[in-house]
Amino acid sequence: MNGCSSSKKNSTEEKNETNIELISARKKVPGITMQQLRLGNKIYIRDCSGCHALHKPSEFTAEKWPPILDTMFVKAKISDSATKALITDYLIAKSK
Ligand code: HEC
Predict the structure, then answer these.
(1) Which residue ranges have their beta carbon within 6 Å of ligand 1?
(2) Which of 34, 58, 83, 93 has the most CB atoms around it within 10 Å of its CB?
(3) pLDDT single digits (tens) 3-45
């Protein structure tokens, strides 16, 4: 009878952490999904680490990121609107 709930507890805790991350992200970007957050993170690392160390999303507020990104998308030569949206939503969802 003892010990049979331990593995179940771990996966529940993992789910709760994911839910907390998603709830806080959705306060800034309503309706964003975990998949979009993960993909945004991947593309951000891929496209934005070439010239300088990556800045933490929490370095700037949701209001500060868009004008910075306008400049950086030009520098990074990113013109695809889906790519821009993924990076923008990821950074705003995790902003200060
Ligand atoms: C071609 C090189 C290059 C690429 C690629 C690049 N950056 Fe930059 N970034 C710079 C330079 C140079 C600066 C510092 C001088 C400046 O602000 O223009 C900078 C500064 C920054 C800053 C600090 C701005 C501030 O006001 O303190 C942030 C944040 C930033 N970049 C984000 C990004 C993001 C997000 C991407 C990906 C979309 C990106 N960068 C891609 C060259 C680049």
Answers:
(1) 47-48, 50-52, 55, 68-69, 72-73, 75-76, 78, 87
(2) 93
(3) 565 556 678 888 888 899 999 999 999 999 999 999 999 999 9
